[in-house]
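Researcher: Re-running this chain for the archive, since the previous output was lost when a drive failed. Same request as before.
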Amino acid sequence: MSTVTDGYGRDRRRVRYPGAPGHLDLGRDAIAPRVVVVGAGIAGLSAATGLAERGCQVEVVERERYLGGRVGGWTERLADGTAVGMNRGFHAFFAQYYNLRKLLGRSDPQLGQLRRLTDYPLVDAHGRRDTFRGLPRTPPWNALAFALRSPTFRVRDLVRMDARAASPLAAVSVPDIYTQLDHLDAQTFLRRINFPEAARHLAFEVFSRSFFIEPARMSAAELAAMFHIYFLGSSEGLIFDVAQDNFDVGLWQPLADYLTAPRTRGRPGTVRFHTGVAVERIDAEAAGYRLTDDTGASLTADAVVLAADPAGLRRIVAVSPTLGDAEWRSRIAGSANAPAFAVLRLWLDRPVNADRPGFLGTGNLDPLDNISVVDRYERQAADWAAETGGSVVELHAYAVAETTPGPGQRAELRRRLLARLHTLYPETAHAGIVGERTLWRQDCPRFAPGDFAARPTVVTPDPRLVLAGDGIRVDLPVALMERAATTGWLAANALLRQWNAAGHTLHTVPAQGRSALLRALATRERQTR
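Model: Regenerated structure tokens:
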């Protein structure tokens, strides 16, 4: 690995992991391997792209009728018949997401479908606000500047913090940080280092809940790794991009067109998509694998990429006894999902105030976690708002229930979310609701204390069965959508290596803290324990 200046991103110290050398086209002089990818989320699409670009025959089987998984999009109709774009909610495409950008760049080399938001403000229950606008990008000055200008973080708070106990946070090394902190929950860790409570709610809690889990149940190691990825390990900054169109139109249909186009020089092998089909079972056979779907049809393959969500992975493995060994199957069975979350999207008959940001993160304002004014950045929503004089507003509530709640709990959550919206954006209190959609989901991986060691990895006991997804362990500094993309590329590389094909080069933020002084202090702290 080495530091680089090529590819997406501006950080000259990001790390490059070169792909293994080998054949560029497996189908040129022989019959190309046939691979089935189960799941067309970011992980599955990354794997399919990596394999197809080396000449593999790729079949992608997706349970939903759209691509993109949890970042998928589709069309619905309001009561008046108007077609509107819909998805599972706001997603931030950070500049640190090098491997995701690599995927999107296949069909959009200039990433023109992404646009930069100018700010990412945060507000808490007392009206205190933080902003990421104008921060220096270089660590540690970015974190220091954020802390010093925050109304929740005073100079004396820095003095009161336990520097020795906080040293792992300031000098993260991946994967070592999991040995140090994965036994602790994030809330306990922050209290041990005397991190100010108000700042905890406004900064760390906002980020931790983006993992769909509250700090008291999130691994302290995951929190520290997150702080490293977005602050002390990267100079890309915290301002992020958003998709300019609904995800289906702007991101995944162009990628599907790229992957399914007739094969020519410089183009990937053709990929076939099977949407609206769920894989029920996978059987290992002498010549490879047989996959049976919910219609009773089957596909055969030389290799399989399992890129299903956590519950889907558990379900498939549980009914596929020929896969893996007992220890591996136990790991899969022991994985768990994060709590349920809700997304409430509203089409209102009047605009919100012009100074409202496209995205507002909230702290200690349960059950609300953020507000998005969708027509500020998404083309379909903007067109609807321009035609009607209204606005499209989205409310997120993360980690709201252990299981998907019943009708009474759902109605109460809606009432509380609307009350928060009306308090924060009073102009919405008298707005008419032209249409609304509520999504309840519980399909995200859990990142609780102790989970890391037992998490399944990309490689499995079966050399030609590999895993991908944001719940799959990878010992690199990546998270969320970037973890999904990275594991997808790594899954492709693991299979390509077996056929002596060239792998794909990946990038991450540095795996260690950038400050030699902070790393030395962290090492000294570990040695004195």
